[in-house]
Amino acid sequence: MTAFPDRFAEKRRILQLETLYDLALALHAHVPEPELVDELLQRVVPVLDPAAAVAVTRDPFGGPRAASTVGWADRAPSGEALLSDPLWNELLAEGRLLVRRRRSFAGRDCSEVIAAPLSYRGVFLGYLAVIDKEARGEGEEPSFSDDDRRFLDSVAALAGVSLDSLRNVERLETQRERLAEENKALRGRLVDEVAGQRIVAQSPQMRQILEVVERVAPRGVNVLVRGESGTGKELIAKLLHLLSGREGALVALNCAALPESLLESELFGIEGGVATGVHARSGKFELADGGTLFLDEIGDMQPTVQAKLLRAIQEREVVRVGAAKPIPVDVRLVAATHQDLEQQVGEREFREDLYYRLKGVEIDLPPLRERRSDVPHLVRHFVEEFCEREGIPVPPFRSDALALMMAHDFPGNVRELQNLVEGAVSLAEEEVGADLLRSLIGAGMEPAASGPEALDLDTVERRHIRRVLELTEGNKSSAAKILGVDRKTLQRKGF
Q: What is the pLDDT of residue 62?
Protein backbone atom coordinates (compact mmCIF):
# COMPACT_ATOMS: atom_id res chain seq x y z
CA MET A 1 0.00 0.00 0.00
CA THR A 2 2.98 2.36 0.50
CA ALA A 3 4.68 1.59 -2.81
CA PHE A 4 2.79 4.23 -4.78
CA PRO A 5 3.67 7.16 -2.46
CA ASP A 6 7.30 6.01 -2.35
CA ARG A 7 7.52 5.83 -6.14
CA PHE A 8 5.88 9.23 -6.39
CA ALA A 9 8.38 10.78 -3.90
CA GLU A 10 11.28 9.17 -5.76
CA LYS A 11 10.09 10.62 -9.07
CA ARG A 12 9.82 14.03 -7.46
CA ARG A 13 13.40 13.82 -6.17
CA ILE A 14 14.60 12.78 -9.63
CA LEU A 15 12.68 15.69 -11.12
CA GLN A 16 14.28 18.06 -8.62
CA LEU A 17 17.78 16.78 -9.42
CA GLU A 18 17.16 17.02 -13.15
CA THR A 19 15.84 20.56 -12.68
CA LEU A 20 18.90 21.55 -10.65
CA TYR A 21 21.16 20.17 -13.38
CA ASP A 22 19.25 21.96 -16.14
CA LEU A 23 19.17 25.13 -14.08
CA ALA A 24 22.94 25.03 -13.53
CA LEU A 25 23.43 24.84 -17.29
CA ALA A 26 20.90 27.60 -17.95
CA LEU A 27 22.38 29.93 -15.35
CA HIS A 28 25.87 29.40 -16.75
CA ALA A 29 24.81 31.38 -19.83
CA HIS A 30 25.30 35.05 -18.97
CA VAL A 31 21.85 36.43 -19.72
CA PRO A 32 20.56 39.83 -18.49
CA GLU A 33 19.57 39.81 -14.83
CA PRO A 34 15.78 40.17 -15.42
CA GLU A 35 15.90 37.10 -17.68
CA LEU A 36 17.85 35.17 -15.06
CA VAL A 37 15.23 36.00 -12.40
CA ASP A 38 12.41 34.89 -14.73
CA GLU A 39 14.32 31.66 -15.43
CA LEU A 40 14.44 30.90 -11.70
CA LEU A 41 10.66 31.01 -11.33
CA GLN A 42 10.06 29.06 -14.54
CA ARG A 43 12.24 26.26 -13.17
CA VAL A 44 11.01 26.32 -9.56
CA VAL A 45 7.23 26.62 -9.97
CA PRO A 46 6.62 23.36 -11.93
CA VAL A 47 8.62 21.37 -9.36
CA LEU A 48 7.28 22.85 -6.10
CA ASP A 49 3.69 23.61 -7.19
CA PRO A 50 3.28 26.85 -5.21
CA ALA A 51 0.16 28.98 -5.45
CA ALA A 52 2.47 31.96 -5.96
CA ALA A 53 6.20 32.68 -6.15
CA VAL A 54 8.50 35.69 -6.27
CA ALA A 55 12.15 36.39 -7.05
CA VAL A 56 13.77 39.77 -6.57
CA THR A 57 17.32 41.14 -6.67
CA ARG A 58 18.69 44.42 -5.37
CA ASP A 59 21.41 46.77 -6.55
CA PRO A 60 24.44 47.79 -4.42
CA PHE A 61 22.44 50.73 -3.04
CA GLY A 62 19.58 48.58 -1.76
CA GLY A 63 17.08 49.37 -4.50
CA PRO A 64 15.37 46.76 -6.71
CA ARG A 65 17.23 45.63 -9.77
CA ALA A 66 15.06 42.82 -11.16
CA ALA A 67 11.80 41.23 -9.99
CA SER A 68 9.51 38.45 -11.22
CA THR A 69 6.26 37.07 -9.83
CA VAL A 70 3.91 34.14 -10.48
CA GLY A 71 0.38 33.65 -9.14
CA TRP A 72 -0.78 37.22 -8.70
CA ALA A 73 -3.96 37.67 -10.68
CA ASP A 74 -4.29 41.41 -10.23
CA ARG A 75 -1.63 43.70 -8.84
CA ALA A 76 1.65 41.86 -8.50
CA PRO A 77 4.00 43.33 -5.89
CA SER A 78 6.75 45.60 -7.20
CA GLY A 79 10.44 45.15 -6.51
CA GLU A 80 10.26 47.97 -3.97
CA ALA A 81 7.41 46.22 -2.13
CA LEU A 82 9.25 42.90 -2.04
CA LEU A 83 12.40 44.48 -0.61
CA SER A 84 10.47 46.51 1.95
CA ASP A 85 8.54 43.47 3.24
CA PRO A 86 9.56 42.34 6.77
CA LEU A 87 10.46 38.93 5.34
CA TRP A 88 13.51 40.46 3.62
CA ASN A 89 14.79 41.93 6.88
CA GLU A 90 14.29 38.55 8.56
CA LEU A 91 16.32 36.89 5.81
CA LEU A 92 19.11 39.42 6.23
CA ALA A 93 19.12 38.81 9.99
CA GLU A 94 19.06 35.00 9.76
CA GLY A 95 21.18 34.63 6.61
CA ARG A 96 19.56 31.32 5.68
CA LEU A 97 16.33 29.72 4.38
CA LEU A 98 13.24 30.64 6.42
CA VAL A 99 9.84 28.99 6.84
CA ARG A 100 6.95 31.19 7.98
CA ARG A 101 3.31 30.15 8.49
CA ARG A 102 0.06 32.07 8.71
CA ARG A 103 1.34 35.52 7.96
CA SER A 104 0.92 38.32 5.48
CA PHE A 105 3.49 38.64 2.71
CA ALA A 106 3.59 41.34 0.05
CA GLY A 107 -0.07 42.24 0.73
CA ARG A 108 -1.24 38.61 0.58
CA ASP A 109 -2.43 36.34 3.42
CA CYS A 110 -0.42 33.11 3.32
CA SER A 111 -0.65 29.77 5.07
CA GLU A 112 3.02 28.98 4.42
CA VAL A 113 5.99 30.84 2.93
CA ILE A 114 9.48 29.50 2.40
CA ALA A 115 12.14 31.97 1.32
CA ALA A 116 15.83 31.54 0.52
CA PRO A 117 18.38 34.35 0.18
CA LEU A 118 20.22 34.80 -3.10
CA SER A 119 23.72 35.32 -1.78
CA TYR A 120 27.36 34.63 -2.51
CA ARG A 121 30.36 35.01 -0.22
CA GLY A 122 28.27 36.75 2.40
CA VAL A 123 26.79 39.34 0.05
CA PHE A 124 22.98 39.25 -0.12
CA LEU A 125 21.78 39.97 -3.64
CA GLY A 126 18.04 39.27 -3.21
CA TYR A 127 15.74 36.37 -2.40
CA LEU A 128 13.48 33.65 -3.82
CA ALA A 129 10.17 32.70 -2.14
CA VAL A 130 7.30 30.30 -2.76
CA ILE A 131 3.85 30.60 -1.16
CA ASP A 132 1.18 28.01 -0.24
CA LYS A 133 1.76 24.64 -1.87
CA GLU A 134 -1.03 23.52 -4.19
CA ALA A 135 -2.76 20.23 -3.40
CA ARG A 136 -2.37 17.85 -6.39
CA GLY A 137 -3.91 14.64 -5.07
CA GLU A 138 -6.60 13.38 -2.70
CA GLY A 139 -5.56 13.37 0.89
CA GLU A 140 -2.31 15.22 0.17
CA GLU A 141 -1.55 17.84 2.78
CA PRO A 142 -0.76 21.11 1.01
CA SER A 143 2.56 21.74 2.73
CA PHE A 144 6.13 22.03 1.46
CA SER A 145 8.26 19.02 2.38
CA ASP A 146 11.85 18.91 3.61
CA ASP A 147 12.88 17.92 0.06
CA ASP A 148 11.08 20.99 -1.26
CA ARG A 149 12.95 23.23 1.14
CA ARG A 150 16.30 21.66 0.28
CA PHE A 151 15.51 22.04 -3.41
CA LEU A 152 14.64 25.74 -3.02
CA ASP A 153 17.80 26.31 -0.97
CA SER A 154 19.93 24.63 -3.67
CA VAL A 155 18.30 26.70 -6.40
CA ALA A 156 18.99 29.90 -4.45
CA ALA A 157 22.63 28.90 -3.90
CA LEU A 158 23.12 28.26 -7.62
CA ALA A 159 21.43 31.53 -8.49
CA GLY A 160 23.59 33.48 -6.02
CA VAL A 161 26.78 32.27 -7.73
CA SER A 162 25.33 33.05 -11.15
CA LEU A 163 24.22 36.53 -10.11
CA ASP A 164 27.64 37.35 -8.70
CA SER A 165 29.33 36.07 -11.86
CA LEU A 166 26.88 37.98 -14.05
CA ARG A 167 27.53 41.23 -12.22
CA ASN A 168 31.27 40.72 -12.45
CA VAL A 169 30.93 40.22 -16.19
CA GLU A 170 28.84 43.40 -16.41
CA ARG A 171 31.48 45.33 -14.46
CA LEU A 172 34.22 44.03 -16.74
CA GLU A 173 32.17 44.87 -19.80
CA THR A 174 31.57 48.40 -18.49
CA GLN A 175 35.28 48.74 -17.80
CA ARG A 176 36.10 47.43 -21.28
CA GLU A 177 33.73 49.92 -22.86
CA ARG A 178 35.21 52.73 -20.80
CA LEU A 179 38.73 51.76 -21.81
CA ALA A 180 37.63 51.50 -25.43
CA GLU A 181 36.18 54.99 -25.25
CA GLU A 182 39.36 56.32 -23.67
CA ASN A 183 41.42 54.64 -26.37
CA LYS A 184 39.15 56.05 -29.07
CA ALA A 185 39.51 59.53 -27.60
CA LEU A 186 43.25 59.04 -27.36
CA ARG A 187 43.69 57.95 -30.95
CA GLY A 188 40.93 60.01 -32.44
CA ARG A 189 39.44 63.18 -31.11
CA LEU A 190 41.14 64.67 -28.04
CA VAL A 191 38.77 65.57 -25.26
CA ASP A 192 39.13 67.37 -21.97
CA GLU A 193 41.02 64.49 -20.37
CA VAL A 194 43.30 62.31 -22.48
CA ALA A 195 45.99 59.67 -22.14
CA GLY A 196 44.04 57.53 -19.70
CA GLN A 197 42.69 60.67 -17.94
CA ARG A 198 46.19 61.72 -16.91
CA ILE A 199 46.31 65.07 -18.69
CA VAL A 200 43.76 67.51 -17.30
CA ALA A 201 43.27 70.47 -19.59
CA GLN A 202 40.43 72.92 -18.97
CA SER A 203 42.36 76.15 -19.46
CA PRO A 204 42.45 77.69 -22.96
CA GLN A 205 46.26 77.45 -23.05
CA MET A 206 46.31 73.70 -22.43
CA ARG A 207 43.41 72.98 -24.76
CA GLN A 208 45.26 74.79 -27.53
CA ILE A 209 48.40 72.77 -26.79
CA LEU A 210 46.46 69.50 -27.02
CA GLU A 211 45.08 70.58 -30.39
CA VAL A 212 48.66 71.12 -31.58
CA VAL A 213 49.65 67.70 -30.24
CA GLU A 214 46.77 66.10 -32.13
CA ARG A 215 47.85 67.68 -35.42
CA VAL A 216 51.57 67.02 -34.99
CA ALA A 217 51.53 63.50 -33.53
CA PRO A 218 50.93 61.54 -36.78
CA ARG A 219 53.77 63.35 -38.53
CA GLY A 220 57.43 62.34 -38.32
CA VAL A 221 58.63 65.81 -37.34
CA ASN A 222 60.79 66.15 -34.22
CA VAL A 223 59.18 68.03 -31.32
CA LEU A 224 60.79 70.22 -28.67
CA VAL A 225 58.73 70.47 -25.47
CA ARG A 226 59.60 73.36 -23.18
CA GLY A 227 58.42 74.25 -19.72
CA GLU A 228 59.35 74.42 -16.07
CA SER A 229 59.95 71.27 -14.05
CA GLY A 230 56.71 69.51 -13.18
CA THR A 231 54.57 70.99 -15.98
CA GLY A 232 54.02 67.62 -17.67
CA LYS A 233 56.60 67.46 -20.46
CA GLU A 234 56.90 63.68 -20.21
CA LEU A 235 53.11 63.28 -20.43
CA ILE A 236 53.09 65.31 -23.64
CA ALA A 237 55.81 63.04 -25.01
CA LYS A 238 53.72 59.97 -24.14
CA LEU A 239 50.68 61.49 -25.79
CA LEU A 240 52.64 62.32 -28.93
CA HIS A 241 53.79 58.72 -29.13
CA LEU A 242 50.35 57.22 -28.46
CA LEU A 243 48.76 59.35 -31.17
CA SER A 244 51.61 58.82 -33.63
CA GLY A 245 50.55 55.35 -34.74
CA ARG A 246 54.17 54.21 -34.59
CA GLU A 247 54.45 50.52 -33.72
CA GLY A 248 57.75 50.73 -31.86
CA ALA A 249 58.21 51.56 -28.19
CA LEU A 250 58.46 54.88 -26.40
CA VAL A 251 61.93 54.98 -24.83
CA ALA A 252 62.90 57.75 -22.40
CA LEU A 253 66.32 58.99 -21.25
CA ASN A 254 67.14 61.79 -18.81
CA CYS A 255 70.23 63.52 -20.21
CA ALA A 256 70.96 65.27 -16.92
CA ALA A 257 71.13 62.08 -14.90
CA LEU A 258 74.25 60.57 -16.51
CA PRO A 259 77.86 61.65 -17.01
CA GLU A 260 79.15 62.06 -20.56
CA SER A 261 80.76 58.62 -20.87
CA LEU A 262 77.65 56.78 -19.73
CA LEU A 263 75.26 59.01 -21.66
CA GLU A 264 76.97 58.18 -24.96
CA SER A 265 76.74 54.42 -24.41
CA GLU A 266 73.15 54.73 -23.20
CA LEU A 267 72.18 56.59 -26.36
CA PHE A 268 74.12 54.65 -29.01
CA GLY A 269 74.93 51.32 -27.34
CA ILE A 270 78.30 49.69 -26.78
CA GLU A 271 80.20 46.82 -28.35
CA GLY A 272 81.33 43.87 -26.27
CA GLY A 273 85.01 43.71 -25.35
CA VAL A 274 85.58 47.47 -25.41
CA ALA A 275 86.81 47.11 -21.86
CA THR A 276 87.23 44.21 -19.44
CA GLY A 277 83.90 42.73 -18.47
CA VAL A 278 81.91 44.89 -20.92
CA HIS A 279 79.18 43.08 -22.83
CA ALA A 280 77.46 44.25 -26.01
CA ARG A 281 74.39 46.34 -25.29
CA SER A 282 71.83 48.13 -27.43
CA GLY A 283 71.41 51.86 -26.94
CA LYS A 284 68.20 53.84 -26.58
CA PHE A 285 68.16 54.64 -30.31
CA GLU A 286 68.08 50.95 -31.20
CA LEU A 287 65.47 50.20 -28.54
CA ALA A 288 63.26 52.99 -29.90
CA ASP A 289 63.57 51.82 -33.53
CA GLY A 290 60.15 52.22 -35.13
CA GLY A 291 58.96 54.23 -32.15
CA THR A 292 59.74 57.41 -30.22
CA LEU A 293 62.83 58.47 -28.27
CA PHE A 294 62.14 60.99 -25.51
CA LEU A 295 65.25 62.94 -24.43
CA ASP A 296 64.47 64.81 -21.21
CA GLU A 297 66.64 67.72 -20.03
CA ILE A 298 68.30 67.96 -23.44
CA GLY A 299 69.86 71.27 -22.40
CA ASP A 300 72.17 69.42 -20.01
CA MET A 301 73.71 67.26 -22.75
CA GLN A 302 77.50 67.65 -23.11
CA PRO A 303 78.81 69.20 -26.39
CA THR A 304 80.64 66.04 -27.53
CA VAL A 305 77.47 63.97 -27.19
CA GLN A 306 75.51 66.73 -28.93
CA ALA A 307 77.70 66.29 -32.02
CA LYS A 308 77.08 62.54 -32.14
CA LEU A 309 73.37 63.05 -31.58
CA LEU A 310 73.26 65.49 -34.51
CA ARG A 311 74.94 62.94 -36.75
CA ALA A 312 72.51 60.22 -35.69
CA ILE A 313 69.55 62.49 -36.52
CA GLN A 314 70.97 63.51 -39.90
CA GLU A 315 72.14 60.08 -41.03
CA ARG A 316 69.32 58.12 -39.38
CA GLU A 317 71.86 55.64 -38.09
CA VAL A 318 73.95 55.09 -34.97
CA VAL A 319 77.38 53.64 -34.28
CA ARG A 320 77.87 51.83 -31.00
CA VAL A 321 80.76 52.84 -28.75
CA GLY A 322 83.77 50.79 -29.85
CA ALA A 323 82.18 49.71 -33.17
CA ALA A 324 82.70 50.81 -36.76
CA LYS A 325 79.59 49.51 -38.50
CA PRO A 326 76.57 51.87 -38.46
CA ILE A 327 73.11 50.58 -37.51
CA PRO A 328 70.12 52.13 -39.34
CA VAL A 329 67.31 53.37 -37.09
CA ASP A 330 63.87 54.86 -37.64
CA VAL A 331 63.25 57.03 -34.60
CA ARG A 332 60.97 59.99 -33.95
CA LEU A 333 62.62 62.40 -31.46
CA VAL A 334 60.83 64.31 -28.73
CA ALA A 335 63.16 66.47 -26.63
CA ALA A 336 62.31 68.43 -23.50
CA THR A 337 64.01 71.14 -21.48
CA HIS A 338 63.28 73.81 -18.90
CA GLN A 339 66.36 75.80 -19.93
CA ASP A 340 66.73 78.75 -22.31
CA LEU A 341 68.27 76.98 -25.30
CA GLU A 342 68.56 80.23 -27.29
CA GLN A 343 70.76 81.65 -24.56
CA GLN A 344 72.81 78.46 -24.46
CA VAL A 345 73.25 78.66 -28.25
CA GLY A 346 74.42 82.26 -27.92
CA GLU A 347 76.92 81.24 -25.24
CA ARG A 348 78.05 78.27 -27.37
CA GLU A 349 76.91 75.75 -24.76
CA PHE A 350 74.43 74.17 -27.14
CA ARG A 351 74.92 73.49 -30.84
CA GLU A 352 72.83 75.75 -33.04
CA ASP A 353 72.46 73.14 -35.79
CA LEU A 354 71.25 70.57 -33.25
CA TYR A 355 68.83 73.12 -31.79
CA TYR A 356 67.13 73.62 -35.15
CA ARG A 357 67.10 69.87 -35.81
CA LEU A 358 65.24 69.27 -32.57
CA LYS A 359 62.92 72.24 -32.98
CA GLY A 360 60.77 70.91 -35.81
CA VAL A 361 57.72 71.91 -33.79
CA GLU A 362 57.94 73.64 -30.43
CA ILE A 363 55.42 73.15 -27.64
CA ASP A 364 55.70 75.52 -24.68
CA LEU A 365 53.90 74.28 -21.56
CA PRO A 366 52.69 77.07 -19.26
CA PRO A 367 53.42 76.81 -15.52
CA LEU A 368 50.49 76.06 -13.24
CA ARG A 369 50.36 79.64 -11.94
CA GLU A 370 49.48 80.76 -15.48
CA ARG A 371 46.59 78.31 -15.80
CA ARG A 372 45.00 78.43 -12.36
CA SER A 373 41.62 77.42 -13.76
CA ASP A 374 43.04 73.88 -14.06
CA VAL A 375 43.79 73.66 -10.31
CA PRO A 376 40.32 72.50 -9.09
CA HIS A 377 40.12 69.92 -11.88
CA LEU A 378 43.63 68.66 -11.12
CA VAL A 379 42.84 68.43 -7.41
CA ARG A 380 39.72 66.36 -8.07
CA HIS A 381 41.62 64.13 -10.51
CA PHE A 382 44.52 63.49 -8.13
CA VAL A 383 42.21 62.88 -5.16
CA GLU A 384 40.07 60.34 -7.01
CA GLU A 385 43.11 58.61 -8.53
CA PHE A 386 44.94 58.39 -5.19
CA CYS A 387 41.90 57.21 -3.19
CA GLU A 388 41.08 54.54 -5.77
CA ARG A 389 44.68 53.32 -5.75
CA GLU A 390 44.86 53.24 -1.95
CA GLY A 391 41.33 51.89 -1.44
CA ILE A 392 40.25 54.73 0.86
CA PRO A 393 37.18 57.02 0.83
CA VAL A 394 37.44 60.41 -0.85
CA PRO A 395 37.61 63.19 1.79
CA PRO A 396 35.88 66.50 1.03
CA PHE A 397 38.05 69.58 0.45
CA ARG A 398 36.82 72.69 2.26
CA SER A 399 36.49 75.91 0.32
CA ASP A 400 39.31 77.56 2.29
CA ALA A 401 41.67 74.74 1.24
CA LEU A 402 40.78 75.19 -2.43
CA ALA A 403 41.18 78.96 -2.09
CA LEU A 404 44.70 78.50 -0.72
CA MET A 405 45.66 76.21 -3.58
CA MET A 406 44.20 78.61 -6.13
CA ALA A 407 46.32 81.43 -4.63
CA HIS A 408 49.55 79.41 -4.38
CA ASP A 409 52.13 79.73 -7.18
CA PHE A 410 53.34 76.09 -7.04
CA PRO A 411 56.99 76.45 -8.11
CA GLY A 412 57.01 72.66 -8.60
CA ASN A 413 53.91 72.98 -10.81
CA VAL A 414 51.59 70.00 -11.36
CA ARG A 415 53.96 67.53 -9.72
CA GLU A 416 54.06 69.63 -6.54
CA LEU A 417 50.26 69.91 -6.53
CA GLN A 418 49.91 66.15 -6.86
CA ASN A 419 52.30 65.51 -3.97
CA LEU A 420 50.49 68.08 -1.83
CA VAL A 421 47.08 66.55 -2.56
CA GLU A 422 48.24 63.00 -1.82
CA GLY A 423 49.89 64.11 1.42
CA ALA A 424 46.75 65.99 2.53
CA VAL A 425 44.47 63.04 1.74
CA SER A 426 46.78 60.68 3.64
CA LEU A 427 46.69 62.84 6.77
CA ALA A 428 43.05 64.02 6.64
CA GLU A 429 40.76 62.68 9.35
CA GLU A 430 37.40 63.66 7.87
CA GLU A 431 38.04 66.59 5.53
CA VAL A 432 40.91 68.62 4.10
CA GLY A 433 41.11 72.18 5.34
CA ALA A 434 43.47 75.12 4.97
CA ASP A 435 45.25 74.38 8.26
CA LEU A 436 46.27 70.91 7.09
CA LEU A 437 47.63 72.29 3.82
CA ARG A 438 49.62 74.96 5.68
CA SER A 439 51.18 72.30 7.89
CA LEU A 440 52.34 70.44 4.78
CA ILE A 441 53.68 73.31 2.72
CA GLY A 442 54.30 76.17 5.16
CA ALA A 443 52.61 79.45 5.99
CA GLY A 444 53.58 80.89 2.62
CA MET A 445 50.46 79.45 1.04
CA GLU A 446 48.58 82.63 1.89
CA PRO A 447 47.80 84.85 -1.10
CA ALA A 448 50.82 86.93 -2.06
CA ALA A 449 50.98 90.40 -0.63
CA SER A 450 51.06 93.39 -2.89
CA GLY A 451 54.32 95.16 -3.68
CA PRO A 452 57.20 94.84 -6.14
CA GLU A 453 59.15 92.38 -3.99
CA ALA A 454 56.21 90.02 -3.54
CA LEU A 455 55.41 90.08 -7.25
CA ASP A 456 58.95 89.18 -8.29
CA LEU A 457 58.61 85.55 -9.42
CA ASP A 458 62.20 84.54 -8.70
CA THR A 459 62.00 85.97 -5.19
CA VAL A 460 58.72 84.19 -4.44
CA GLU A 461 60.14 80.93 -5.78
CA ARG A 462 63.36 81.12 -3.78
CA ARG A 463 61.48 82.08 -0.60
CA HIS A 464 59.20 79.09 -1.03
CA ILE A 465 62.11 76.70 -1.63
CA ARG A 466 63.81 77.99 1.54
CA ARG A 467 60.63 77.34 3.54
CA VAL A 468 60.44 73.77 2.28
CA LEU A 469 64.12 73.22 3.09
CA GLU A 470 63.46 74.48 6.61
CA LEU A 471 60.54 72.08 6.87
CA THR A 472 62.80 69.16 5.84
CA GLU A 473 65.66 70.38 8.06
CA GLY A 474 67.90 70.92 5.04
CA ASN A 475 67.28 67.53 3.40
CA LYS A 476 67.40 68.42 -0.30
CA SER A 477 66.09 65.05 -1.48
CA SER A 478 63.00 65.36 0.72
CA ALA A 479 62.53 68.99 -0.29
CA ALA A 480 62.77 68.10 -3.97
CA LYS A 481 60.14 65.38 -3.48
CA ILE A 482 57.74 67.80 -1.80
CA LEU A 483 58.29 70.40 -4.51
CA GLY A 484 57.95 67.79 -7.24
CA VAL A 485 61.28 68.62 -8.86
CA ASP A 486 64.59 66.86 -9.40
CA ARG A 487 67.29 67.31 -6.73
CA LYS A 488 69.60 68.76 -9.41
CA THR A 489 67.04 71.49 -10.03
CA LEU A 490 67.61 72.75 -6.49
CA GLN A 491 71.35 72.65 -7.06
CA ARG A 492 71.04 74.66 -10.27
CA LYS A 493 69.03 77.26 -8.36
CA GLY A 494 71.85 77.61 -5.80
CA PHE A 495 70.44 75.52 -2.96
A: 82
| Whether the model pTM is above 0.70 | no
Q: Tell me, what amino acid is at 5?
A: P
Question: Which pLDDT score, from 0 to 100, does residue 399 have?
Answer: 84
Q: How many angstroms separate the Cα of 58 from the Cα of each of 26, 61, 127? A: 21, 8, 9
Q: What are phi and psi of 170, to 5 degrees?
A: -65, -40
Beta-ladder partners of 126: 57, 118
Q: Give the separation between CA 126 and CA 160, rounded to whole angstroms.
A: 9
pLDDT of residue 21: 57
d(CA 401, CA 417): 13
pLDDT at 241: 92
Contact 362, 224 (CB under 8 A): yes
Q: What is the mean pLDDT of each run of 10 residues along the chain (495 residues)?
A: 53 61 61 85 86 90 88 86 92 91 90 92 90 72 84 87 84 77 51 49 86 90 92 90 89 87 87 72 90 93 91 92 88 93 92 93 92 89 89 88 87 89 88 87 50 48 72 72 71 72
Beta carbons within 10 angstroms of residue 470's beta carbon: 11
